[in-house]
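FW: tagging you since you asked about this chain on Friday. Here's the raw sequence from the shared folder, copied in full. Didn't touch anything.
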Amino acid sequence: MNSLFSNALRVPGTAFGPASTHVRFGSSTVGVAPDQATQDAIISAIADRKVFQADKVNAAVKEFFNLGFDATYNAFFSTETMSEHVYGYLCAQGEVVGGNAFLHTTVRDNFAFYFCDDSHQAQIEAMRKVEQFIVDRKDLTATHGFSVRSYHGSGKVLFAVQLDKFINPNPTDAIKASGKPTLDLVATETFIKERSEEAKERYQALLNLIHESFHENYQIQETPSGEIALSIGFRADRPAYFSTLTCLLSEIPDLKINKKFMESFSNGVQTYTFYISGTTKEAVASKANLINQLPHRPNNAISHLMADKILTAEETVFSHIIMIFSFYFSPPAESEDYTRLKAMVEHEPVGLNRLKSLRSSLSQEIMSEHHLGDVIAANPELLKEIYADFKAGSTPATREAIAAKIQTTFEKDAHTRNIFNAFLSFNGAAVKHNFFKSDKAAIAIRLDPKAFMGKLDFPRMPHGIFMFVGPQWRGFHVRFTDIARGGVRMILSDPKSYPQNKQSLFQENYNLAHTQLLKNKDIPEGGSKGTILVSTRTLGRLDDNDKLRMFRQYVDALLDVTIPNQSSIVDTLKQPEIIFLGPDENTAGHYPAIAALHSKGRGHSWWKSFTTGKDPSLGGIPHDTYGMTTNSVRACVEGIYEKLGLDQTTLTKFQTGGPDGDLGSNEILCGKEKYTSIVDGAGVLFDPSGLNREELLRLAKERKTVDHYDVKKLSAKGFFIAADKNRDLTGEPVVLPDGTKIYKTVEFRNNFHLSDYINTDVFVPCGGRPRSVVLSNVHKLLRNHPTATGEMMLRGLVDAKPNDLKYKIIVEGANLFISHDARLALEKCGVTLIKDATANKGGVTSSSLEVFTGLALNDEEHKKLMCGNADGTNLPEFYQRLVKEISSIIYNNARREFELIWRIAQEHPDIPKSIITDRLSRKIVEIRGFIYESSMFDDKKFVRYVLDAYAPKTLKEAVSVDEMMKRVPENYQRAICSIWLASNYVYSKGIDSNEFDFYEFMRTHRANA
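HL: got it, structure written out here
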């Protein structure tokens, strides 16, 4: 492929080419016409086309080189290319009709250029053509890079774009090995060949900055000629951002862009350089601070409003935020049909929940973000008024005035009226945010749920909601109590699953936090959960560094609105908030330690307890190393074996979540059942004769996925099928030992838990997406009942015998793996099932006591008693004893709950164990809330008594209870008292206890105190 750009002669000390140009970085020397021989060659090339008369060609060449393009133009482009440009310039003059903008387009397979007038709208149109050129070649962007250059002069602008091969189209592994994205790994062949060493140094510095930073990445320099050079770089999720960035800068009064360049690299980075005059560095910096929020916004109706200067950059970002808010929180429209259907299923909880879910899903489909953008585009002035109210500090009176205007404007259009009312409700819900902070990594808004969730169909009102809008992601953090903790989950999607993941994001986050609330029945922290939904446009080249950067953006934005007295933070809540985070899907490993150290760097008072799951060098207690979550799962599994008189060594077992994971590895190590199948991200491992136990133990100890299993140890009927989406595209099947042909290996993996290959005694989900088993597919867990449906199972209309059950025992180690109604359907058919809120609580107990230890110990004590090496060696004796005590607490708590559930189930065989778990959890949560809000905390002697009973003995050896009361925040102490009393009361008195039972319980403990 021939390059449009010339291989100019390189002279030491020059930036682009011949020394005669005297051009160095940052210079804006006005171009000098090339020598006469070059001009003659250009004239001859154009004349050979026999389109324009000779005098017109001669005049055009002279006129073209008098436009005043920067001198780098002559140095960079070849004679052949310059003749193409002059010919296009001639064509553009002939194409001007009726005063239309001066515009010409020349497009080839690997390059294009565009001429336009030096007006804002003409440039935007030309830049969109550049971007469309790139979009049209999207199939090549994985293997080819784009280089764009623009030159401005005498009222005309030239844009030139070139397509060239990358040296290394897939540099992820090489970058990981080298530690940074060097140009020889990520640039195009032409870039390396044609750029000067000085230019390469500048680009390498910017690439390093992007690789190491989680913030916006730009540099502002003053050039010797007085220009301002703005260099921008970021991981891109769109083909190009020229028009967006130009619109952003054009908001600066009197600003003039003299030239701009863009380069793309194979690690997904795009860089932009603007040479600017007519303004100051400070003014440029004020706009550059928006770069991290603005460029990644979808190219939709809203971005067109910005390009047309109808909306400012801030208003554009605000529009995107309220569109996301409204997408998730607009009240579904009421209708007579819905009201009547709701009344019909009012006393059938499962049916009511399904009706509400259907209504919410249909509402979101109608209220798509694309549609919301179109509504704003049709009414931009009203949007501007809502933003002005937000910026000024919204009050009930100002919102009431705008609401009246909305009512008048859309009196006959209820749909649009509801949308704008939803937009307006955001102003009242946003009680704290970092929107006006100049150096934010992402936008964080603390929402007051009471301001907007009353009309939504959620079973419990959260204590607080944080909404996040990142450059290439969106997310939430939902907490149900003042003191709450839970993990942060990063959700990665393929293009097929992304729409559903986006639509269900808040619902999933809410459900996870609510499950966490019910699960956290033994610890002071209530339930919370965080989510980060990564834009599907970024996933093509997403690497570990990208995921870590997004996680750090999430953490930094959360700290913006939780650390007290931060500058530029709008805070009408005026209440301190303590947040504790933990690891979850795609945020385990070193993520928690990085978050803790980041919070320490931000001056967070409780940095030692900000995250759990840290490595031991920071006092963390890794769940996987000590099998903390598995402790509670095994307490339930072994409890069932004991109650049913089963010998686990004779039982067959299936597991989702492989030996590389926390739960998966420890479940293999702790259990003695015979595995017939394991499914993880790598694929499906199956052997009806039983998988080799020694081989599974090896994988679990080495934390390797099932694709590392030695397939020579499989029987004739066994197989391993790798989940390979690239192979699925070929249409070639994988043939199983029984002759079955598998065309979609990823789908085969995702649904294997429903397949007819399964017939085991025990199923322990240790991984997998939420709602992998729902009412619409739960019938697939039955054998010999081909006409059965989930509805029939739920209503008790299926006479299932033990041999009809693919799984006779299910202990739900993975959160929300089975939906509520599917659990009930399985129990109706005789499955012995323990749900996640009981089984999966070991990790949260460990994390809670890790938090408590961090709060109770000062920094010096913590370092001495809790910190060893990152690899878990050289651990203090105190640490080792504390870990053993925590493990014992976890097992005993889980077994105590299991015994109560089993006892109630024996007394009331008509009540499913899932329902018993829910009732038990709700009762503890309800009583905890009453105690937390009571005056009981005023009795400090009683608080001390409870704190003494709650604190691990090992911890009390290091710090006295009296000292704990001085160090641990008072609201955390209140939470300890509330949960200790509530859980001990319910576990001892049961779920049918009454007020007198509670009185007797409290009287006993007050006497003891």
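FW: The chain is about 45% helix and 15% strand.
HL: agreed, and Confidence is low (pLDDT under 50) at residues 1-28.
FW: great, closing this out.
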